[in-house]
Amino acid sequence: MSDVKHAVVAVTGVTGALGGRVAPRLAGRGVPLLLVGRRPERMPELPGAQRRGPAAYGDAAAMRAALAGASTLVLVSGHRTGRRLEEHATAVEAAAEVGVERVLYVSLVGASPVATYVNARDQWATEQFLAGSGIRHTVLRAGIYTSTPAALADEAFVVSGPAHTGRAAFVTHDDIADVITAVALDDGPRSSYDGSVLEITGPEALTLGEAVARIAAATGRPYRFVSETLEEAFARRWRTGMSGEQIETWISWYQAIERDEVSVVTDVVSRLTGRPATPVSHAAWWPAPNTARGVPGPGI
Ligand SMILES: NC(=O)c1ccc[n+]([C@@H]2O[C@H](COP(=O)([O-])OP(=O)(O)OC[C@H]3O[C@@H](n4cnc5c(N)ncnc54)[C@H](OP(=O)(O)O)[C@@H]3O)[C@@H](O)[C@H]2O)c1
User: Fold this and answer.
1) DSSP secondary-structure letter at 189?
2) Are 247 and 238 in contact (CB under 8 A)?
3) Residue 292 CA, closest ligand 1 atom number
4) b or e along 197-234 (b: 16 or more beta carbons within 10 Å of the residue's beta carbon)?
5) How far is Cα 221 from Cα 264, in angstroms, rounded to an integer?
6) pLDDT score of 5
């Protein structure tokens, strides 16, 4: 705990994997926090933190009430609903209305109106809204999570999808949380990160085959990657009972990797944290198989 006086930071997504790592880091640095979300009863208990909500991003009145008193908002992007732009824009407007001065928005590497990965198009739309909103902001584009291939594996530890030689610079949740923490702590009236787009990536770009082999070595479990044709991927997923929208979303994730749209490697982790980005083989957290959102199984 430091003696520096920090302004109040609101953090969303704290019941999830990323926000749930950002909040304790900031609390540990003595930052007063508002934990904001739909399920206050599931939020962690942290020193100097108030739990606020229930507040969904799309509920302007609930977001205003939850964010009152914050100076900075760490806005973790929400789950895919088909209305993410509206939800994120409502949350940002609510923040501005109650005096929040800056927003740190967690977007996605590869965000673009023509991105192959459907979620990266949603993220681009929110980035545009933020840029035009007039509020001080920083866009933190998270790379593809190191944990996702492990969560996508089936009960036999097989990860299958239409990717072959394309690469992704997989990045751990912990590295992303460390970068967000560093930016949030730079909380004077002007931050050197105002207006920046920071692409947070792992240390190297790997094919899915390489990444999954490293996950197998790191966990001691028999993970393996099986590449499929696009046609096989659509047909197999349909047989597992996924919705058409889920099938399209996940296939677009593999295809974005195959097209090298998420393979950029940056020095953001080392520059902002003072230590190298974590390779897949050294990740500290592995979700169970069949726990990726939108695939059959328990979901996360
Ligand atoms: N970079 C990548 O590879 C990658 C992969 C997957 C997802 N993502 C994006 O990154 C975000 C954070 O990742 P994560 O691993 O922390 O996901 P996660 O574990 O599923 O957590 C998502 C968090 O966001 C909250 N949330 C979702 N929709 C919301 C809404 N409409 N209003 C208020 N809160 C909402 C959830 O709250 P509840 O407890 O109320 O559900 C949860 O706390 C995801 O939500 C997604 O947008 C990125």
Assistant:
1) S
2) yes
3) 6
4) ebbbbbbebbbbbbbbbbbbebeeeebbbebbeeeebb
5) 28
6) 87
CA of 142 to the centre of ligand 1 (A): 12
Asked, as a colleague might, if the bond just before 54 is cis with ω within 30 of 0, I would say yes
What is the distance between the alpha carbons of residues 192 and 229, in angstroms, rounded to a whole number? 45
Task: Report the C-alpha gap between 21 and 66 in whole angstroms.
Answer: 20
Q: What is the mean pLDDT of the chain?
A: 95
Q: Which residue has the higher pLDDT, 191 or 28?
A: 28
Residue range 248-299, pLDDT digits in tens: 999 999 999 999 999 999 999 999 999 999 999 999 999 999 998 776 655 4
In this prediction, residue 16 carries a pLDDT of 97
3-state secondary structure of 286: coil
Task: Please state the φ and ψ torsions of residue 254, each to the nearest 5 degrees.
Answer: -65, -40
Tell me which DSSP letter residue 279 carries.
P
DSSP helix, strand, coil percent of the chain (3-state; round to 5): 40, 15, 45
Summarize the confidence of residues 93-107 as an average pLDDT: 98
What are the chain's domains?
A: 9-142+172-201+269-273 (3.40.50.720)
Ligand 1: residues within 6 Å at CB? 12-13, 15-19, 37-39, 42, 56-57, 76-79, 87, 108, 142, 144-145, 148, 293, 300
The residue ranges of DSSP E strands in the chain, in sequence order, are 9-12, 33-36, 49-52, 72-76, 102-108, 136-142, 158-161, 167-168, 197-200, 206-207, 224-227
User: What would the pLDDT profile of 188-235 be if each residue is shown by its tens digit?
Assistant: 888 899 999 999 999 999 999 999 999 999 999 999 999 999 999 999
Q: Which two tokens stand for residue 269?
A: 């982790």
